[in-house]
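Okay, is this right?
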Amino acid sequence: MSTTRHLVNRQRRLAASRATRTPHKDALRIPSNPKEARRRPSWALPDGPRPVRRPLPWPLLLALLAVLAGGFALLAHTKAEDLRGAPALRNTAVTDTARTSEVKGVVSKAVGAVFSYDHTAPDRTQRAADDYLTGKAVGQHQDMLARIRRDGGKSKLVLTTTVTRSGVEVIDGSRARVLVFADQSNTSTAKGGSATYAAAMFAVDVTERGGSWRIANIDTFDR
């Protein structure tokens, strides 16, 4: 009896031991290989059939690549045209120092000549205007100096304009814009006359024709 009881108990222990070591079919499979454990996360699903990823058909794939390549080419062309047309790239005032210096020199000389007046030689101002002005600037200059021309002989006026600073904002081909700072003195040499001094700031647009720069517009920033 005791032998039979011991045999039954031993069989029960073996059965319990095998149940503990054999995982359920839905249980997670814990790899015994440490390398495999590092490759496979603990929450991975049990091994089983995996979904099949079907590659795109070659005609469809080639068509998709052609569309992407065409879109990229169009975008690149548009960006290139924008850069070539940007005003900053056309402005040589920041790259051509010799041309910038030339424009500044001509403008300084022109402004000093056309905005100076001596009652003893009134034609000198007109000759300077003929040499340095063109277009809209001709009429602007006449309006600005109309009173001085009218009263200059009687008051014996002497107007002197000296450019103190200038800066070339833009040079675009044969056109340029220059900001000018100048000192002006207006002196009456008649009996009891006086002198006045003032600072002026304005901009001029200049154009190049036949190798010569001329003032085409005078901007006094009046609103």
